[in-house]
Amino acid sequence: MALIDVTRVRQETAGVERVAHLNNAGSALPPRQVVDAVVEHLRLEEQIGGYEAAAAQSERIEHTYDALARLLGAGRDDIAVVENATRAWDMAFYSLPWTAGDRVLTARAEYASNAIAFLQVARRHGIRVDVVPDDEHGRLDVDALRSMIDDRVRLIAITHVPTQGGLVNPAADIGKVAREAGVPFLLDACQSVGQMPLDVEEIGCDLLSGTGRKFLRGPRGTGFLYCSPRIRERLEPPFLDLHAATWTSPDTYQVRSDARRFENWETSVAGKIGLGVAVDHALDLGLEAIEDRVTQLAAALRTRLRDVPGVQIRDRGVQQCGIVTFTVDGHDSHDIARALRAGGINVSVSVVDSARWDFEPRALTSVVRASPHYYNTDAEIDRLLSALPAPGRGLR
């Protein structure tokens, strides 16, 4: 496995000269290649027109589907490119035919947008949302999941890596249960894609949603959905347009056969091209090498945070990734994040509203979230640690 050339990737990342960017679980600093691709296409639109620029760059647009297919171990017809990960997830979830009494099985670590969608469909169609217990490490308990399967379960929907902590749910084990039961499996990979290898066949998911802006280092306003051919014909998207379907006669239409049935006609072409460049960049570096460096940086940060008086690490799980969450006794997490940002250190805050099923049982209202990427350095971790408040002392 090749190592990441940190000097080179930092040279390709303009923002590292200004900030210690430890908010990659929010939105990563894009590499120069991605920025150039987006700007070049916008310049082309400026010069010859939007439709004409898209036609001229059709090969680059189509390449994005090939790149995402390689990233996920999928076929290009299994990929839809949409405006964000939430829209990708929604298009999959709301495509399922729900009836009263159907059940969804999900995890305690589920993201708020997904949970809200569950609750809306429960109110609208009378389905049940059942939260699978955690195991002793905070992961979804696979044995409990298996025991909860019955003939009313219509979907298993799990977040792979939660927004509010570093644990990695056992996606492949969940996929095995789903396959054995013949239940569709929707995996929210928003935080895992780009920081670790993902193979949809090894995982066993039928649907997977992801974003460009986080660990893939792509443009904001880009997301994607993988939809397996095993399930695709059973799903009609919640809304259609002339791209997702063909108007075949005055009173009939035909939904397209590939995953682009989940797209709509209008899109950010520059963003789509930039997303393909970002995926190529990650593949060129190697997802195993990326995961190794990200995991090492995050583990080093956790180890050193444990030595800081008053700091409590809030991450759970056996396998932990590039998201590190913590609290500081006597200090509000938002105040910590603001003080760090004032010192040129970017972190984020995860709040209870984003993860009620997880935070409320643990009596948490918010945590500071630091998320290093492969272009970060030990020196930047030192900066974060040096800026934290000492016991009995205010923020610096």
Runs in which pLDDT lies below 50 for 5 or more consecutive residues are: none
Give me the side-by-side strand order of the main sheet.
2-8-7-6-5-3-4
Proportion of residues in extended strands:
15-25%
Strands, count = 15
Q: What's the rounded overall pLDDT mean?
A: 97
**Class by alpha and beta content:** alpha/beta
Percent of residues in helices comes to: 25-40%
Could you give the distance between the termini?
41 Å
Q: Helices and strands, in N-to-C order?
A: HEHHHEHEHEHEHEHEEEEHHEEHEEHEH
Rg estimate, integer Å: 21 Å
Sheet of most strands: 7 strands, mixed
What is the 3D form? globular
> Number of helical runs?
14
Which key terms come to mind for this protein?
396 residues; four-stranded antiparallel sheet; 16% strand; 14 helices; alpha/beta
Characterize this entry briefly.
This protein has helices spanning 6-11, 32-48, 50-56, 58-72, 85-93, 112-125, 142-148, 171-181, 200-203, 269-285, 287-306, 333-342, 356-359, 378-387; strands at 20-21, 79-82, 103-107, 128-132, 153-159, 185-188, 207-211, 223-227, 245-249, 252-255, 311-313, 324-328, 345-346, 348-351, 366-370. By secondary structure, it is an alpha/beta fold.
